[in-house]
Amino acid sequence: MDLVLSAADHYFFTPYIYPAAWPEDDIFRQTISLLIVTNLGAYVLYFFCATLSYYFVYDHSLMKHPQFLKNQVSREIMFTVKSLPWISIPTVALFLLELRGYSKLYDDIGEFPNGWFQLVVSVISFLFFTDMLIYWIHRGLHHRLVYKRIHKPHHIWKIPTPFASHAFHPVDGFLQSLPYHIYPFVFPLHKVVYLGLYVLVNIWTISIHDGDFRVPQILKPLINGSAHHTDHHLFFDYNYGQYFTLWDRIGGSFKNPSAFEGKGPLNYVKDMMEEKYNSPKENSYKNEKLSNGDFKKTK
């Protein structure tokens, strides 16, 4: 995060915002700057990626599902807008620790004998480490003692849209992001890779709420995608993982997505619409429309 803050200081905060006498490394100034940068970045990333996903990926026929709520999209957005500033407060505290040199983040690949190899390994280990911790944190949030108070707000959305991706109770949102922050305090990680992975995991979080249930056949047993996570919202006790199905299989909480079996929410909507279209009442209505000259074929 020091790379982002350094750029923000150079191009914006130092020349236009703060008094020249206020040092850039002052902890109070850094706290204020990080709060601004973190919130601004979170909102831009959320609205930009979720909007693209909603209009170009999300299957809007899911909105006809009976468990899709009235005004759901606007409610998801409002919930997120209210939660992100609160989530940013403990997040900035961890960013400050990184900024003050308490983490194992580094910026020179040459610091290690096998620099590039270590960089590649760190990406893989980051994904598996965070997936493991998120699984257990997420599963713990489903415990009856904490679920109603903390995690239930995210499960209001039975048929989520990309805008539900960050619609968490603030404590819930921070706890599920905590593994991303823990990793660089335990293992060495390049600063640019860390920033890239932080953006990537936020995009992934949006993608598993995007209603696109297609997965390459070879990856279906391995990847926890939108089909898996939508079933988590629908059936509650399954598919807690973030990226992979590994820990759900180990923990006995894996459920083959209903979408892969032709029983998912899109199949339900399709069957519902066909049943409605083929019902006697609907047929009578269509015949009446035809007798009035409507529904005629056009070239």
TrEMBL record:
Cofactor(s), by name: Fe cation
Region ranges (Disordered): 278-299
Record carries keyword Membrane: yes
Cellular component per GO, a single term: endoplasmic reticulum membrane
Any one GO MF annotation of this record: iron ion binding
Subcellular location: Membrane
Chief place where the protein resides: membrane
A Pfam family this chain is assigned to: FA_hydroxylase
PANTHER family reported for this sequence: STEROL DESATURASE
Protein name, as recorded: Sterol-C5-desaturase
Organism: Jaculus jaculus
Gene transcribed to yield this protein: Sc5d
